[in-house]
Amino acid sequence: QDNGFEQFIINYCNEKLQQIFILMTLKEEQEEYVREGIQWTPVEFFDNSIICNLIENSKCGILAMLDEECLRPGAVNEDTFLTKLNQLFATHKHYESKETQNARHVMDASLPPQCFRIHHYAGKVTYNVTGFIEKNNDLLFRDLSQAMWAAQHTLLRSLFPEGDPQRVSLKLPPTAGFQFKASVATLMKNLYSKNPNYIRCIKPNETKTAMLFTPELVLAQIRYLGLMENVRVRR
């Protein structure tokens, strides 16, 4: 019910995995039909790259704006971060907040003031910006790292290499968001080099009961996993 920085990062990864699924199973499959001259009716599908770009664009994505706020001198808080997002994405159809809703004359009591909402591929998710800056900074004070190194313990030294006096750096450590984005990019590169097979798991009901299927729940998952389009393309 209350989504913070961690859920935002997880959903960003899910969005990227969905993107690779779309590209490999819908886009590339249909391009192969074109190359082979097969007669078929093109299947329309939603390309979620617009959502991935909203989050990860290196110049004006949400993660880039968060990093910018973390580096800004002076009093920094989530209000300035949210204001910046509202200005940047005032007209973006996959982003909304109380402010952008007011500008569009939308009355929606379900979206609190300290939040923004992203229209993800799998549905709308509301994120509370409280704690975003602190969690993204992920700072461990330099003197603590040096104390761990000074303990002369092999394991501690391997866990805190930045505590080595020979390696003291005045550069700010990379943010949590930056590190995660780099990890996701490495994962995507790895997946693109493979020939993946997909197994999609469907949760049949909310009560973990045997032999019980809740059609609405199953249908919702089939829709947001992109399986309808996938079956049409394969057929």
UniProtKB/TrEMBL annotation:
The keyword DNA-binding does not apply. Coiled coil: none annotated. GO terms for biological process: actin filament organization; actin filament-based movement; endocytosis; sensory perception of sound. Keywords: Actin-binding, ATP-binding, Calmodulin-binding, Motor protein, Myosin, Nucleotide-binding, Repeat. Residues 184-206 are annotated as: Actin-binding. GO terms for cellular component: brush border; cytoplasm; microvillus; myosin complex; plasma membrane. One of its GO terms (molecular function) is ATP binding. InterPro entries: Kinesin_motor_dom_sf, Myosin_head_motor_dom-like, P-loop_NTPase. It holds the Pfam family Myosin_head. Residues 1-235 form the Myosin motor domain. Belongs to the TRAFAC class myosin-kinesin ATPase superfamily. Myosin family. PANTHER family: MYOSIN, UNCONVENTIONAL MYOSIN-IA. This is Unconventional myosin-Ia.
